[in-house]
Amino acid sequence: MEISTADLYDQQGEALASVSLQFQDLGGHISFTGPVRTIRCLEDNGLVKSVLNSPGDGAVLVVDGAGSLNSALMGDMIAEAAVANGWAGVVINGPIRDRAAVAKLPLGVKALGSNPRKSAKDSVGEVDVPVEFGGVLFQPGAVLYADEDGILVER
User: Fold this and answer.
1) Which is nearest to 87 in space by CA: 46, 27, 139?
2) Dihedral, CA atoms, 123, 110, 93, 59, nearest 10 degrees?
């Protein structure tokens, strides 16, 4: 991303929604942008694995894990698949695991933190539905911008 989120907000103002949650930067790329794809799930990363193993075409996967910190929704192998499939980044309203390995990958990753505990693998949840957290509605197809200052999403 060539322009900072702060400068982008100064230019576009209320056309952009600003995520209020304070995510940790856990991937090798701190700045990333792309069209939103979404998953809503709770302590189950089966859909996350499936979607990130499909072509990303520069998209950002936004995962609403309801803020649960009980189990990780992505680890190093799923993150490696995201890189191999051309995803720009992942934003997880929940934790990841394998954070040292994920930090070395050329992928934007913002999450609430980490937990070594695996999640369920039943693929329970929804894909490409509007999700909301941090005061922002994430619509599939809207463009997301992320860097050290935070996350902005087209309204």
Assistant:
1) 27
2) -50
Check whether 9 has a pLDDT greater than 90: yes
Contact 90, 74 (CB under 8 A): yes
Q: Does the pLDDT value for residue 1 go beyond 70?
A: no
Count Cβ atoms within 10 A of the Cβ of residue 119 and give its class: 0-12 exposed, 13-18 middle, 19 or more buried. buried
Backbone angles phi, psi at 26, to 5 degrees: -120, -5
Q: What is the pTM of this model?
A: 0.97
The pair phi, psi for residue 104, each rounded to 5°, is -90, -10
Burial of 96: CB neighbours in 10 Å, binned 0-12, 13-18, 19+ = buried
Residues 89, 93, 99, 103: what is their CA dihedral angle, to the nearest 10 degrees?
30
**Percentage, residues of the chain above pLDDT 90:** 99
